[in-house]
Amino acid sequence: MTAQAATEYEAYLANEKPEAAVEADARQALAGCYEKLGRSADAQAQYRRVMAVTPGDRRLAAQLALARLLLQEGQAEAARPLLETAATGRTTPELSAASKFLLGQCYEALGRGQDASTLYRILSEGKSAYALHAQVALAELAAKAGQAPEAIARYKQVLQAEKEAEARAKLAVRGMSVAYAAQDYGATVAFAREAGEKALGENRLLLPAVAAALRDGKPEDARAWLAADETRSPKATAERLMLAGAVATAFGDTQGAITAYERVIGEFPNSREAPTAAERMLGMRARSGQPETFLKAYTRVAMLLSDEAVAQLTPLRLEAALKAKDIATARGCATWLMEHAAPEVAAEASYRLGWLAQEEKDWALAGEAWMQTAERWPTFEIAPKAAYAAAYAFQQAQLPDRSESALRLAIASGNAEVVPQALMLQARLALADRDTAGAAAALDEYLTRFPAGKALAEAAYLRGLIFFNHQDFTAAEQALGKALSFREGADGPTPLDHARTVDASLRRAQALHTLGRGEEAAALLQPLLGLKDAAALSPPYLRWLAEFQLERQAWAEAEAAARTMSAHPAAQEVDRVLAQVLLGRATEGAGQPATALAAYEQALKAAQQPTIYDAQAAYGAGRLYLALGDAAKARDAFRLATERTKGSEPATLALRGRAYAGLAKAEAQLGEKDAALRAYMNLIIFYDDPALVPEAFRGAIGLLEAAGRTREAETLRAECRQRYGEAALNP
To answer: What long-range pairs does 414-417 form, CB within 8 A, spacing at least 24?
Structure first.
């Protein structure tokens, strides 16, 4: 129809002779047809004829049409004088605005952006139909000049003024493009909402809108636009699957995200998105708590990963390998990180190599790995910790020189966390090597430098043990008292565990007792008297505790300690014999002779072989039998006591002497006068006790006189006077 119209216009102009105004209108229309038909040269010729045949606004309209056509064909320089003339001429406001607007476009084409901007600003402040067009042009200029904030602001202003829906959608699309390119994702989402799904889809902007919404924290919008794109084009693309993974991640759907990324890898393995998909998928699997699955997935997609992705994922792969006990993979990752990763990551990897060696119980290799960490990266935070770990590992590997070197590194680091641990380890190692001087030096340094350290209680305890073993009981008591001063639940040093608390309490009590502070010792031991605490003591401690309470005549406490010692799982036969002896003494002191006698008898039955405590048990039993009037059993017990007392120690000799005295009394009660006399004479001849021997003299003299052996009796009287005085014969 355009071609037909052009033919008719041509015929009319060829055959008719219209007046100028009508001719101008016909040629103007014919020029428009030529434009639509692509006959630019013919259109230009007609516009020029119009300009030649008519003045005024018709001429100006043709001039503007010609200039517009020239601009469309890239002939801005040819269009410029036409537009400048039109823009400065006198005409209607509408034509004037049109002239200025086209001139602004001409200036843009000629690279005169500032001149174009001036014209557009003038137009934007007016009320012509070109005001909004000028605003849009200003926005475009700002965008081209890299002034995205200004461009975005102008698009927003235009949208507020524009009422027509289709025009608003187009403006929003353009504004969104500018905002997205400028990474202003908030503005991008706002423009996308204004444009609507239809316009976004027609302009292929749904997926950019999804990306912007995700960046702007608007996952609901992202999900809606993603669904719209899937509806518009059901066939999957790598770009859309990547965004689907991101949307799933935003909603916490880890499995959905992994599925999307796996589809990218599987369906588009050669796409530019595949490496990123592989990296994201692996990152999610690494955090899923399934290390074996992550390691398998890594092996499957490793060829897709960039060097940067490998660097980022290798630490995660190391963690997964450690959790999966895949030592070979873990060692490979750690070694790779040491050579390729940033120094802080490499140092951490080197530290992990030590743990890998420790997992395989190769303490020497672990120590070397940790030592390398400390020496290669001495300024890093992990270095002191590595040095301490190396010291422990070398100690386990029985490499004392290497352990000492590592400890020196750890202590020299000055690290507030590591140094106290290193000093304590140094002290423990020295104690294990019986180097009490070295242990004391390390403990003293700890106690001086870390008066509120976590291991303060242990340090004071160990220092107290050293003082105690050196019999410096004053210092031992003070150190052990400090060790016992910390309680559970309070801030500061960690209290001693139960076993060490009991041990420290008992040793401190022993020190107090030795220092003559018995009441303080008793008060300290009071909490240990319950069976729960007493059962935690070794038999030697229980013995001391029982004897201490016997000395204080605390019979019930002594009995409890003795019974616990007797039932202690670590007690040997000799310990059980002694426990029964102590039990006998405690119950006898408490006025329970029957219980005491049973204990002494049990002591004599407890061991299959004679023990050093049999004599005490036999003497105690003999004494009680004698008190009960059973002289025969008393005699047997006293005889056993004299037979089992071996040695020349003062306590042993004293016990044997008391046993002879008891034997003599028992024999006398049984009428065995000769046997009684022999027992008395053993005392007189072999002993010099100021209590037992005079009594033996008196008993022997009485037996001799009763037997009519007066001369012998007088001889004994004389000897008694000589040794102990007259008073010994008549007490």
So the answer is: 415/384, 415/385, 417/384, 417/385
The pLDDT value recorded for residue 582 is 95
66 Ramachandran zone, left/alpha/beta (phi>0; psi -120 to 50): alpha
Distance in angstroms (rounded) separating the CA atoms of residues 549 and 590: 12
pLDDT at 443: 92
Q: What is the mean pLDDT of the chain?
A: 89
Q: Is 249 within 8 Å of 226 (Cβ atoms)? A: no
Whole-number Å distance between alpha carbons of 444 and 440: 6
pLDDT computed for residue 459 by the predictor: 93
Helix 131-144, helix 165-181: angle, nearest 10: 20
Tokens of 96: 């004037």
CA distance 101 to 120: 7
**pTM for the predicted model, two decimal places:** 0.52
d(CA 459, CA 418): 15
Question: Distance between CA atoms of 651 and 549, rounded to whole angstroms?
Answer: 20
Which of 364, 359, 292 has its CA nearest to residue 331?
359
Q: What is the pLDDT of residue 229?
A: 95
DSSP-based three-state secondary structure for 58:
helix
For the chain, residues with pLDDT lower than 70 are 489-490, 526, 528-536, 607
Cα distances from 279 to residues 33, 260, 308, 310, in angstroms, run 59, 13, 10, 9
The span from the CA of 553 to the CA of 572, in Å, is: 26
pLDDT of the residue at 557:
86
The label of the residue with tokens 């037996």 reads 703
pLDDT the model gives residue 530: 58
Task: With H, G, I as helix, E, B as strand and everything else as coil, classify residue 128.
Answer: coil
| Spatial separation of the C-alpha atoms in residues 87 and 688, rounded to whole Å | 147
Closest C-alpha to 383, from 334, 420, 357, 346: 346
The residue type found at 88 is T
